[in-house]
Design brief:
Blueprint (H helix, E strand, L loop, with lengths): L1 H41 L6 H19 L4 H16 L1 H10 L15 H49 L1
Helix pairs in contact: 2-5, 3-5, 4-5
Main location: membrane
Subcellular location: Endomembrane system; Nucleus membrane
GO molecular function, one term: DNA binding
């Protein structure tokens, strides 16, 4: 029994060391990405009216999708419009990059579309995922109701045959 306890303790210490080393390497490996992410958001002037409007649009769209979760047809319309917004993001980026002086203090629209991907496509994809999960949940509820109705119908048929 003592051998088993000592083997377990050695194994636990070994696993603890492995977890500590792994988490340390993860922290050092992700640090440049975290620094770039923080630098990206510090480079943006968040008080610009068009950015406030963009964020307000995303919040309003998210609230609309959450409040209309029972209306599947409207949800599908929102879903398709959000995905269309993501699809046209490249064209939007080119258009805004050419006309940034009329609404922004600096040119955020690089040729690779990083800014627009982060602040336009990212939230739209998140909202699309919320709508998709809601739709899948609604479909599961519909399947359960359908199966219950089918079982009730079969039970009625079986009762009628017995009578």
């Amino acid at each position: 029994m003592e051998d088993l306890k000592s083997a377990m303790n050695e194994h636990m210490e070994l696993m603890s060391d492995l977890v500590e080393k792994f988490s340390g390497e993860l922290r050092t490996g992700f640090q440049p990405a975290v620094d770039n992410f923080i630098g990206f958001f510090h480079a943006i002037d968040w008080k610009e009216p068009w950015l406030i409007g963009l964020m307000s649009f995303h919040v309003a769209l998210l609230l609309t999708s959450l409040m209309s979760r029972k209306n599947i047809n409207f949800q599908m319309f929102l879903f398709l419009m959000a995905l269309a917004g993501v699809y046209f993001a490249e064209k939007i980026n080119i258009f805004l990059g050419n006309n940034w002086k009329s609404f922004a203090g600096q040119n955020y629209f690089d040729p690779h579309g990083v800014f627009l991907s982060a602040l336009w496509s990212g939230p739209l994809l998140f909202i699309s995922i919320v709508i998709l999960v809601n739709s899948l949940f609604s479909l599961c509820q519909l399947i359960v109701r359908w199966k219950k109705a089918e079982l009730r119908h079969r039970a009625r048929l079986a009762r009628n045959k017995q009578d």
